[in-house]
Amino acid sequence: MKTIESNSHLIYFENSLQQLGDFIKNGQYSKIIFLVDTNTEEHCLPMVKNQLVDLADYDVIEIDPGEENKNIDFCIGIWKMLLDYKADRNSLLINLGGGVITDIGGFAASTFKRGIDFVNVPTTLLSQVDASVGGKTGIDMDQVKNIIGTFTQPKAVFINTAFLKTLNRKEVYSGFAEIIKHGLIYDAKLFKLLLNTKPERVSPEIIYRSVMIKNEVVTTDPFEKGLRKILNFGHTIGHAIESYSLLNDKQPLLHGEAIAIGFICESYLSTKYSTLSELELVEIKTYILSCFPTYKLKENSFKKLIEIMKNDKKNEADKIGFALLNQIGKCDYNYYLPETDIISSLKYYQEVV
Q1: Does 136 qualify as catalytic in the annotation?
Q2: Residues 175-201: pLDDT tens digits?
Q3: 60-85: b (≥16 Cβ within 10 Å) or e
Q4: 146 catalytically annotated
Q5: Which of 209, 255, 285, 314 is catalytic?
Q6: Given 70, 136, 181, 182, which residue is catalytic?
């Protein structure tokens, strides 16, 4: 069994579902409630139930899958169900799902009756290497991702790579984008390893290393006052594109597909405002385009994208904030850039695709 200690809780690997059973038994909770979506209820909850043979009494809250449902209305629905199930402050909410479930579930738990315990059982690659770790909870509002939320740590995280067999190719690649980010901002050796790794064959060892990187950063800076800001690389532009796509495309981009575009744009900006070399920019751009589908960025969308970026949490004094690469494996933060250069980076992406 592997574990990682993270800000007073543990992240469990390998025999994690067995450890979940032990955690529930030792916690002596008055009520156990699973939060799932329709996909994880069908494909993942049976796997958990098979391992938790001693868990006879529990309730289930089911929501629709998708980023478009990570909003206050669905959160109210979760709160109402917690009331219906007579959840008290000694109840446990088990978030079984991807990033949407861990984000909204963590937020609902952290605010219900001023906070009840929750644990994350991430079932997607994206949630295993990113969303479930670090204590960020949140919901979206007015096209702005995660604008309402809390910093609240789960009591534990249970990572089981067997869940990844339930994913389609697009979902695997979406999660792989966050692993790429961890290499770009923190570990050049990991990035070099990924150059020869097919996302659909990502190993448990790579997942473990990626989670370690995320944990090292957030343990150092749990409330995003400094170092943790490097985790936002690719996300200022990527989140805006994701939000825009959600509203305007019949088949919206997944999170990882959108931030992959952000990697290219913000790597371009890193050559202008930081010390990333042109050769490294080409290496990053070439690799990203080999992994992810291209997206048609239209110039008439630029104004709207800038508007969305202006509502980003990282901004200060109406200036749009970025984390930028010094080189592959090293990143810095608190760059505030003019709109003209941000638009230039969007045009750069247009040119290279």
Answers
A1: yes
A2: 999 999 999 999 999 999 999 999 999
A3: ebebebebebbeeebbebbbebbeeb
A4: no
A5: 255
A6: 136
User: 197: which 2 tokens?
Assistant: 């790794």
Decide: 132 and 12 in contact? Cβ < 8 Å. no
Q: Are 15 and 159 in contact (CB under 8 A)?
A: no
71 token code pair: 């909003």
Query: Is 230 buried (19+), middle (13-18) or exposed (0-12) by CB count in 10 A?
Result: buried
Between CA 40 and CA 164 the distance in angstroms is 11
Per-residue model confidence (pLDDT) at position 1: 64
224 is catalytic: yes
In angstroms, the CA 131 to CA 123 distance is 11
What are the chain's domains? 3-166 (3.40.50.1970), 173-352 (1.20.1090.10)
Query: 195 with 112: CB under 8 angstroms?
Result: no
Tokens of 65: 């899958």
Instruction: Tell me which of 145, 209, 239, 314 is the catalytic residue.
Output: 239
Pick out the chain residues at pLDDT < 70.
1
pTM score above 0.85: yes
Amino acid making up residue 226:
G
- Which of 332, 140, 173, 169 lies closest to 239 in space, CA to CA? 140
DSSP states of 142-191 as a string? Answer: TTEEEEEEEE---SEEE--GGGGGG--HHHHHHHHHHHHHHHHHH-HHHH
Using the structure block, give the residue that is written with the tokens 């790794």: 197
**Helix boundaries (H) for 204-316:** 204-220, 235-248, 255-273, 278-291, 302-309
Residues 206-257: pLDDT tens digits?
Answer: 999 999 999 999 999 999 999 999 999 999 999 999 999 999 999 999 999 9
